[in-house]
Amino acid sequence: MGKKKMKGFAMLGFDTVGWIEKDVPEVGPLDALCKPLAVSPCTSDVHTVWERALGERSDLILGHEASAEVVEVGALVKDFKPGDKVIVPAITPDWCAVESQMGISQHSGGMLNGWKFSNMKDGVFADYFHVNEADGNLAHLPDEIDPVEAVMLSDMVPTGFHGAELAEVAYGETVTVIGIGPVGLMAVAGSVLRGAGRVFAVGSREKCREVAIGYGATDLIDYHDGDIVDQILDKTHGAYVDKVIIAGGDVNTFDQAVRMVRRGGIVSNINYLGTGDYIKIPRVEWGLGMGHIRIAGGLMPGGRKNMEYLSKLLVHGRLDVKPLLTHRFHKFEDLEQALLMMKDKTPDLIKPVVTLA
Ligand code: NDP
Ligand code: ZN
Known about the structure:
Blueprint: E1 5-13, E2 16-23, E3 32-39, H1 43-50, E4 60-61, E5 66-73, E6 85-88, H2 98-101, E7 129-131, H3 134-137, E8 139-140, H4 147-150, H5 156-166, E9 174-178, H6 182-193, E10 198-202, H7 206-214, E11 219-221, H8 228-235, E12 241-246, H9 253-260, E13 261-269, E14 294-297, H10 304-315, E15 325-329, H11 335-344, E16 351-355
Parallel strand pairs: 9-10, 9-12, 10-11, 12-13, 13-14, 15-16
Antiparallel strand pairs: 1-2, 1-4, 3-5, 3-7, 3-16, 5-6, 6-8
The protein binds NADPH dihydro-nicotinamide-adenine-dinucleotide phosphate and zinc ion.
């Protein structure tokens, strides 16, 4: 008897996407097979396909943001069973790896290797997808959370919040968030939850700017209106900001970040740098290398614990992800349009989400 087949939306090669048929993945003793309830394309999928950021990939099913229903579990899975509704983190580390014991599970087994979906193996834009180490990498979806909203817990919330964590945002601090797409908006929300005083939000799309204010940004900056460092220092009367979170821009953005942050401040980066070979740091403003300005960049932490704790913010009304969901689709086939929207980004777009069940 032949293997059961499924349909998926894939990167066929550089610059090309399309529908393909593959075998339904097999489940090992610790793993799970899931079917998506709702999924969303990520800007990272765009970097991967159209900017060639990860290198060559062919017939790789895309997508790493999903809520799902468990269909099958391996013999050693303890806490999940078929029929359970789950949140699926974009990052699904190998929890036994040495790097996980070092606190950098994102890099379990190699640089960025905790990022498996749509990178090292087929992603979630399929009838079914495979989850490694299900007990560590799935989280039960609380009844109070709509599966469509839960998709934002896969990647946007943990990534934006990781930006605020890496920046160690503290009470009363002034924070600049460069880039206010969905990731930067969650960095604004995360900074505000951690107690930021003033938050500069840098971006130009009107919808994102409106939602940034809703999440607690105090000042809007448009990078088309001149150097953002000048604009911000003008508003602070020359005082440097405490922290900068980079969630947009490119390799040149670090120069601006270092020029606006105070001595001893932190620049955190959660942007996926899809192009360019080097990042330029301004020597003098970096204190000739001695300014105690830290630069930290990180992939979001995956895993069950993070998802379960972040989901409590939704359950208890501390965070509302609905403003991110600007475009809703209801058919699997609409995934293609949703991904192309992420590539082309109209002024009214934050995140498209596709409901499958
Ligand atoms: P968007 O493209 O929606 O947002 C990018 C933002 O950056 C927009 O606000 C845009 O402004 C702004 N921007 C663009 N160019 C500049 C510039 N030169 N100076 C200042 N701001 C600029 O992206 P997402 O929010 O979806 O994702 C952000 C990044 O996070 C992506 O690179 C994505 O791949 C990455 N990512 C990283 C993850 C991680 O684990 N670290 C996980 C998920 C995503 P405008 O309003 O004009 O569009
Ligand atoms: Zn992503």
